[in-house]
Design a protein that fits this description.
By secondary structure, the chain is α+β, with helices and mostly antiparallel strands. Helix content is 17%, strand content 43%. A hairpin with a 2-residue loop joins strand 4 and strand 5.
Amino acid sequence: MCLAIPVQIDQILDAENAIASVGGILREINTALVDDLQVGDYVILHVGYALSKLDEDEAQETLRSMAEAGLLEDTQP
């Protein structure tokens, strides 16, 4: 099963790529489909592509719900 998950942008690399925090792990993602990204923004990530922006509250609630459902591994110390 493939899931789209909220991730936070940690670094903008260029117009089409960024580094995002995925469960505490930094990963390069493609951001070509989303305009005007800034460090700290949250996006929905699916198979390496940012699909859309979402606000922090919505991102945190989604991550909380996914964790409660057992869909995320606990990567926090």
